Amino acid sequence: MPKTAATPVSAADPSRWKALVFIALAQLMVVLDATIVNIALPSAQTDLGISDGNRQWVITAYALAFGGLLLFGGRIADKWGRKNAFVVGLVGFALASALGGAANGEAMMLGARALQGAFGALLAPAALSLLAVMFTDAKERAKAFGIYGAIAGGGGAVGLILGGFLTEYLDWRWTFFVNIPFAVVAAVGAWMVIREPAGSRNRAPLDIPGVLLSTTGLVALVYGFTRAESAGWSDTVTVAMFVASAALLAAFVFVESKVKSPLLPLRVLLERNRGGVYLSLGLAVIAMFGLFLFLTYYLQVVKGFSPVKTGFAFLPMIAGMILGSTQIGARLMTRVAPRLLMGPGFLVAAVGMLLLTQLEVGSSYPALILPAQLLLGLGMGTAFMPAMSLSTHGVNPADAGVASAMVNTSQQVGGAIGTALLNTIAASATTAYLADHAAEAAAGGAAAQLVQAQAMVEGYASAIWWAVGILAASAAIALTLINTGRPGAGDPVAAGSGSAEDAEFKVPVIAH
Hints:
The chain is mostly helical. Helices cover 79% and strands 0% of the residues. The protein has helices at residues 2-10, 16-48, 57-80, 82-101, 106-134, 138-169, 174-177, 179-193, 208-231, 236-258, 266-270, 272-302, 307-313, 315-332, 339-356, 365-390, 400-436, 438-442, 445-481, 500-503, 507-511. α2 (16-48) packs antiparallel against α5 (106-134) and α2 (16-48) packs antiparallel against α8 (179-193). The longest helix has 37 residues, at 400-436. The chain is globular and about 75 Å long.
């Protein structure tokens, strides 16, 4: 075993750090796209004549394709080769972005967004699994995942800044066209420098029933939450989507336990450390995405910030995430157990969120919003970094793609749930406040406008209280479920330990 444990250092790919640059660039492009289009949406809606009822589909089409196809994309990467999947995903994403930027109507725009989601579902797990199989030394892995975690956490906020700039000073179409140079540089660079370790592919036949059940089940789940935001939780179609999703995903789990070559081997999902990562990260993203939505509306509608100024207002959160991920998380990851970074990280983020429950119409940005964002960024950045690393650590290299897809799936589903759940809570609180102050609202003039603003802020504060609780639950899950020791603490496969069933799948990781 000592010889095996030492192998990664001697067999390390000499171009792995160059590869990280292009993998990080591709990840930034995918994460940017999750928020950059939000700021451009009002302008695009006007130009393309998209109705108010259909505008949500510009966001939903991407989310459905991305969330529904992630597991399939992860297994394709395992089977076909992660480098191949990565490059094809980049080229396809660039072409879909060009189609979106050139859209001349609603149908073309929605088709482009669905294509972006489909190629993103191939690209995202390929990127993360490439890191998993190329960086096997504990200290190098910590640095690599620190950079990746900072981008995964902060890229959405960067998208708000870039989206504001492009929309305000150029044209909404550039929020799509900007992806093309990102994709071209990343694809050319990846093709030249990435070399996958030998023997890390999974050449088993595709589990077609598993593909169909997981895709339709995840699409139904994401659509159910998205529809709940606009049509309500008791809407017949919303309820039907949740029931269908539960049935399809239960059937998927049953099929996966029976077939010889499952799409998602249950050993990937049920090992307590990886399961703890998927669950705690998914919950944390619920809080995160809801906050992006509320702060964007608060700053633009209540405080009157321009799109560019709103984007810059998110900079403290980005700075906190980068600091938490690359300095705190990466430096401590090889010294302390992952749960001792993830649990406290989520709690620090919860404290930042707690500050924002004090939000009022006249709240000071420097005194309240800035420190709250710094705490949120520091906490989430510190927690994201070990979470991203642990999501694939100790897994058989042949399963790295689908393990990476699971962490992306938990974030994508968490984002859909966060937007719908917290927005619904905020809308209910706003409606209740307006009902209680109906006389003032009916008076008209400045008093009515003030009541409207106060009602909105009351709604945001109510939803943010829920976000505090969700982050506290993430911390509790991380501290109780995740029990692995620090990487390299004597047990070369410690980060994958947790079940006898999983044990046989650890040694191949060390061998590379």
